[in-house]
Amino acid sequence: MDDIEGKVLSNRAIAPGYCLLRIRLSRSMGAARPGQFVMMKIPGEDIFLRRPFSIYDYQKGVLTIMYKVVGKGTERLSKTPKGASILTLGPLGRWFTVNRSASPVVVAGGIGFAGVYSLIKTLRGNSSIFFGCSAINEISLLKDAMRFHPLVATLDGSYGFKGNVVQLFKKHLKGLKDKNVEIFTCGPDNMVKSLKQLIEPYKIPCQVLLEERMACGMGLCFGCVKKTTDVQEPYKRVCKEGPVFDLWEIFL
Amino acid sequence: MGNISIKLLGKRLRNPVLNASGTLGYGIEIEPLWGIETLGAYVTKGLSIKPHHGNPTPRVWEERHGMINSIGLQNVGVDRFFNVYFPFFKKKKAPIIVNFFGFTEDEYIACAEKIKPDRLIAALEMNLSCPNIKAGGISFGKEPRMVFDIVKKVKAVTKIPLFAKLTPEVRNIVDIARAACDAGADGLTLINTMPAAGFDAKKKNIPLKGGLSGPVLKPIALRAVHECSKAVRVPIIGVGGIMDAMDAVSFFMAGAKAIQIGTATFVDPYAIPKIIKGVADYLDANGYKKIDDIIGTAHER
Question: Which of A246, B4, B141, B260 is most buried per CB count within 10 Å?
């Protein structure tokens, strides 16, 4: 892990409001594991703090980030041109741990896909993938995962199942709940909440990748906590003890 | 390279650069990037007699030239700090300054009493920005009389040199500085964050109120250091929005004996080692032999 300078190779829109950024790092940041993230110094003086982004992909010195434009920082990042220098601190945080004896199920919503893609890739098609988004124009997020045959839900029904991803997953729960499965999930708060509600009666093991506003990204400031079931010290740092947590130890 | 070591209340520190309390975790988190012994001394996260869980999120908010934090003094408590984390500093022989706080006078006193003198404890630093629950929640640091009382009581129970860390949200910080020194404070840390509010334009609400830090605070801190260092004789640690070596130099020239770096570390995790080197380079380039040669030089007109 280190703070490494990189050059933007490409930074383009892949769906309305979503972009894919590729950066060639000037040196290796070491092994990046599924679920880990980087803190990026967005070029320009107007963005004071760094921003956390899941590592979508990292190979041969090229770091790929998939992001959604949600505010000032990502807006500015989306306008960063090819050739610009960017500092990235990483890889950071605790990663997904795959239990070899359980069959993996991935549930992702919207930009949450960026957090689980590297896991999907590591599992090489060895997982059941459920993905949900608003409409068909966001399906291009899934491009790299299409070879692993994801099941897709769109809210407007313009592609695949009509409804949200948890409703889609529910249809398949019957066949899964008695098997030895482990769920890996990342998505909007409401999605994770309703997933938790759905699987609560079956206590299916589930690892969740969470998001929070961060300042430092490496455990220095205690700014990005989530409340856990730990009585002694309930607030855990998303950047340090997370971003991957046991769903059953988190208050959503 | 110029000699940038300093003598702070009888202890020799390798350099005058410290971290601001609460901006470098428990000290171990920065190890992957640089060793804690790089610092003149490590200032602990604010410790209390009992552990504190802290506030719900959001705890941090970005501003144009700084940030607002509302961590809520989350910490493992003074006992666990010394059991779990202090051995790490012992092993590295890295000196520390123990920052602590309380919500009542008794809590401050109990905490100060708990901390036994140790070769590696260079000083205590008491955070006076906390609300005094028994005085209707007004911060301990806001009235000279309350500052005098609490500093005096803490001084009575410890042999370790004591820095009082002052809040800038006061009528006249020089009066507060004098009250702390009259009560026996061995040094002052100037300043803590400034109370502020963030605004969420999307949600049209105020998501948090907390302490403002970063470059936006620097001129306020610099003024406090300049005025207080003229008024009192104790050493002053300057802190507030220092982002680079030239900022650091300005605090020394304004009268600070040492400085602390906080928010800069979030922007650049190497800010501290860069500033240490930058200060030494500044001395070399300008023909100064030691850091003392620039301390308070901006006092002369």
Answer: B260
Domains assigned to chain B: 6-299 (3.20.20.70)
Q: Which of B111, B130, B181, B228 does the annotation list as catalytic?
A: B130
Active site residue B130: yes
Report the alpha-carbon distance of residue B6 to residue B20 in Å, rounded: 18
Residues 217-276 of chain B with CB under 8 A from chain A are 263, 265-270
Percent pLDDT > 70 in chain A is 100
Over residues B1-50, the pLDDT tens digits come to 667 999 999 999 999 999 999 999 999 999 999 999 999 999 999 999 99
Q: State the smallest CA–CA distance between residue B23 and chain A in angstroms.
A: 5
Domains of chain A: 2-92 (2.40.30.10), 103-209 (3.40.50.80)
Cα(B151)–Cα(B159) distance, integer angstroms: 13
Query: Are A226 and B23 a contacting pair at CB < 8 A?
Result: no
At A25-66, the pLDDT tens digits run 999 999 999 999 999 999 988 899 999 999 999 999 999 999
Q: How far is A232 from chain B (nearest CA, A)?
A: 8
